[in-house]
């Protein structure tokens, strides 16, 4: 299995990566939400890259400091 990765410049990039990882693992949004003990709507909002003040400021700080965020799906099953 090849390791999946992507650079993330926005919350939408993170959400898209999370959606692909969830789908590769054969999980529905509801199954992931149940596993995490959260609401399915929150999983949906994460995957949609819904704007929120924390994520917006976090990525603004990354850009300002010249930080590049790389997301990598672990292949060790953890």
From TrEMBL:
InterPro entries: Cro/C1-type_HTH, Lambda_DNA-bd_dom_sf. Residues 18-74 form the HTH cro/C1-type domain. Gene3D superfamilies: lambda repressor-like DNA-binding domains (1.10.260.40). It comes from the Bacteria. CDD domains: HTH_XRE. Coiled coil: none annotated. This is Helix-turn-helix domain-containing protein.
């Amino acid at each position: 299995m090849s390791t999946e990765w992507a650079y993330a410049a926005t919350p939408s990039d993170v959400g898209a990566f999370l959606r692909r990882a969830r789908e590769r693992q054969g999980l529905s949004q509801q199954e992931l939400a149940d596993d995490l003990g959260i609401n399915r709507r929150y999983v949906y909002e994460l995957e949609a890259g819904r704007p929120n003040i924390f994520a917006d400021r976090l990525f603004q700080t990354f850009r300002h400091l010249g930080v590049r965020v790389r997301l990598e799906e672990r292949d060790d099953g953890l």
